[in-house]
Amino acid sequence: MQNEDLIQKALYGLPLDTKTATDNDGGSIQKEGQTKAGFLAQIDHSFSPDGYYTEGPYYQRYAMYPFLIFALSLEHQKKDLKIFEYRDGVLLKAIDALLQQTDDDGEFFPLNDAQKGMSYYSRELQLSLALGYYYGNQDEGLLSLIQKQNRVPLTYSGWKSAIDLAKGKGKKFDKRSIYLSDGPKGEKGGIGVLRSKEHELIMKFTQHGMGHGHFDRLSYSLNYDGHEILQDYGAARYVNIHQKDGGGYLKENKTWAKQTIAHNTVVIDGQSQFDGKVKVADRIAPDEFVFSAENQKVQVVSAKENNAYEGVELFRTLALITDESFENPLVIDLYNVKLSEEAEIELPYHYHGQFMSSSIALTRNQTLSPLGKEDGYQHLWKVAEGEADQEYEQINWFDKTRFYTLNVASNKGDQLVMARLGANDPNFNLRNDPCFILKRKGQKGNNLMASVLETHGSYSTVTEASRNSYGNINSVTISFHTDEYSAISFTNKQDEEWTFIISTVDKSSQTTHEITIEDRQYKWGGPFALFRNDLKQ
Amino acid sequence: MQNEDLIQKALYGLPLDTKTATDNDGGSIQKEGQTKAGFLAQIDHSFSPDGYYTEGPYYQRYAMYPFLIFALSLEHQKKDLKIFEYRDGVLLKAIDALLQQTDDDGEFFPLNDAQKGMSYYSRELQLSLALGYYYGNQDEGLLSLIQKQNRVPLTYSGWKSAIDLAKGKGKKFDKRSIYLSDGPKGEKGGIGVLRSKEHELIMKFTQHGMGHGHFDRLSYSLNYDGHEILQDYGAARYVNIHQKDGGGYLKENKTWAKQTIAHNTVVIDGQSQFDGKVKVADRIAPDEFVFSAENQKVQVVSAKENNAYEGVELFRTLALITDESFENPLVIDLYNVKLSEEAEIELPYHYHGQFMSSSIALTRNQTLSPLGKEDGYQHLWKVAEGEADQEYEQINWFDKTRFYTLNVASNKGDQLVMARLGANDPNFNLRNDPCFILKRKGQKGNNLMASVLETHGSYSTVTEASRNSYGNINSVTISFHTDEYSAISFTNKQDEEWTFIISTVDKSSQTTHEITIEDRQYKWGGPFALFRNDLKQ
């Protein structure tokens, strides 16, 4: 760090004599249009203004160490550079962003290629936590994580953290609902995390994330009390376990884990987004539409994706509703699929636990065949199927201590397919997890997949007492649906009724909207509103 | 309790005017040959001299309360009866026996019809713990369990327990290797629990256990650190969960959970023991052969069953070996099947976790069919199969933090079948657990299924470090096998060799044995011995 010439080269790179470059695994080294190089360019291109790292939190955990150790050297040797203030303090924001992408047990959300179970207990996080504390705003929440790590790096910041912990400082780290934009200017989609009570909803609509990205646009996952209710599979890999192809990425990572059907998002005509082509997907990102978490009772994340399939516009709105009429937050899902011609729409739910019952009668297969031949379908055994014969159907399962019911505003003729992972897996590389898939014959124009997911009741194997195992929701209907608005109404067993409406074209918080549904007038300001129908909002 | 006539009737029953009686579920009320009735007769017939309850620990937890609350009343009102000393203190022994049948988390071994997760935290145990402490020998280990319960009954014993806890008494409850005989005189088989470090091996060879019994003779299950490595499925039931047939026993309890293939024991010709007939099974019990746990390094449980199949003698010996050359205890399994004619032998392993690799090449099925039509096989999907082409084969899997390898002394031509539960289950009542099955074409005479199961290595998803994932055992061979002796030899990667020998006819500890294997002389006293071949025992 005493050689200014080397420092300059490290910061700004060598002159670029190529236009693009990739490594031998297809990973991007130099992107098209990229004209800068060096450490600062790397910071610019790897992190969004919110500190989101383009490959996702699993790789961010890994990448933070070299970024920070070099930044620390710069801070010592080139103080005038003010590296920790660079780009509005993006390196420090990245530390917070990374920690916000952990569940109640400290495990990173398994987005993109990610091995589950990696957490803020990893050794790479030691430096992040100490630097975040010292160079940031001395957030005592970070001290509590340092205490969990029970180790500090041999830096001044590490020493200061230890001293402050010894002084009795430290408080619970504050996890909050957060929107993290992706892209150097925050213009390439992002992830929205909604939190309420024990629930954590993660909607992903980032750019592709290069070689480690998955075809998962507009997918979401859901955690309860630190464990997954609706999962993202993560990577098909057993890092460093020799039996599994030397511990590297397994073939099934590409053929299953990256495919769209492996995620809780719509699949059109049995094909993955962008036909599974990374280069095409890398070019364009989804668009954030709304992220709103100021009102803890009605939190919303919403995004659009119009490029993943030709002639298909995908627009998903997820709302996490906390209302005293329900013991847990509800998840409203309004997933509109606008088609230029008829197509098959499939929406998979990768649930955990034991399937309990469904209002759709299911016929089990006597022998099992794979659901398809490619795009991940070849790995799913088709276990059972049934057909909706009502416009409201329920799918109910149990996991650990709670019951879950997906309340679906169905079309008669919609299909429910029960599946299990594990087909075409010669080396037993896949977990044999279950999922169910809602299928609809999509018509030209708008097709709204609408549902409300309820967490309810409880069960204990010690008391053997079962409480509220069927849930409290009584009906769900699409009450309004045009090119401008989508509305879903639902009732509970106490005959209370709610209507959630979103404007699908105007996201301004200034606009006032007014529509009439079944002779009732709804008027509100901003893009969305939840109405309790016997009351004014 | 003031009416002596009623007390007498309660203690000794009304005169019996029937010979047998059953309830409407086929449960036994009065057994053939039973001439006594009342409370004392119930104690006599329900508990073995060791305190084992004939239906197993899950039901014992439930049954203990009425037994003890009545006993407590008798203790108060009829002190001269000395009810807690009755039959050498069998009620107090039953409390200890029940607690010894729990894993590291306090959960009861799921033997017979049992819902997993029931534990000594259940409310029924409060009275047992307080009475066990007060009327027993003031075992402070019980105090620590009372502290975990965090509640005492409103009895003098409850008060005394709370006082002693407040005085700071209490120590870790002592779990130990234990043999619990079954039957009123301890003459009807039993269960053997071997414990060493984090390992817990449970071998079951009790009498059938009436209506709640399973066809599971000579099966074993294995726990590591409080979780199951080789599981007993337990009952197919979700107690009190309405969706699942009102919370009662499910059809699959009979068609799967009770069947022999659902347990880690040999199945002959695809049929359950006693052809799945409870009445026949109830008539005769297996025989304990050896239980020895004095030497912590070589603990052995061994039993015979000659009635489950016509013309078949089953004799299984399990040894839990703790040796400094291995990081964890090993399980030696010598399962001899003596056949009067050729038959198919199948030995299932209901493992938990992810299959990693096998020295037997496996071919996966492109479509899945059930393994059979009845006796539980109709519920298993046949996933893959392979054939042994060596006389030593390994099957390796991973669960949570550890690796496991079954090292098999195979015959060329033995088959390995990978299966998964879930076929013919129209209402999704079964857990879709995996298992593998070792198959051998059994010849007339002795057929010895021999193996060594090794727990080894470690893996952490936080450090991503994998250690010793293949295990340390290098070979396993059947080194001697006659009508009088069985011996297994195994080596490790450090070229150390061990031989375990058991006399299969003489269980006396007085007898001295001497045999020669490959020019090496082995001489020992008692039924079994473990030799390290470069040293004397």
Mean pLDDT of chain A: 95
Q: Tell me roughly what share of residues is in helical segments of chain A.
A: 10-25%
Main beta-sheet annotation of chain A: 8 strands, antiparallel
Q: Describe the strand arrangement of the main beta sheet of chain A, using strand numbers.
A: 9-10-11-12-21-18-17-14
Structural class label of chain A: alpha+beta
Which term fits the overall shape of chain A? globular
Detail the poorly predicted runs of chain A: none
> Any guess at the CATH architecture of the largest domain in chain A?
Distorted Sandwich
Secondary-structure topology with pairs:
The structure is a homodimer of 537-residue chains.
Chain A (H helix, E strand, L loop, with lengths): L3 H9 L8 E2 L5 E3 L7 H9 L10 H21 L8 H15 L24 H11 L4 H10 L6 H11 L11 E4 L7 E8 L2 E8 L12 E6 L2 E4 L20 H7 L9 E2 L9 H6 L3 E6 L5 E8 L6 E10 L8 E10 L3 E7 L4 E5 L4 E2 L15 E8 L5 E7 L2 E8 L5 E7 L12 E9 L2 E12 L1 E2 L6 E2 L5 E9 L3 E8 L4 E7 L8 E6 L2 E6 L2 E5 L5
Antiparallel strand pairs in A: 1-2, 3-4, 4-5, 5-6, 6-7, 8-13, 9-10, 10-11, 11-12, 12-21, 13-20, 14-17, 15-16, 16-19, 17-18, 18-21, 19-20, 22-23, 24-25, 25-26, 26-29, 27-28
Helix pairs in contact in A: 1-2, 3-4, 3-5, 5-6, 5-7, 6-7
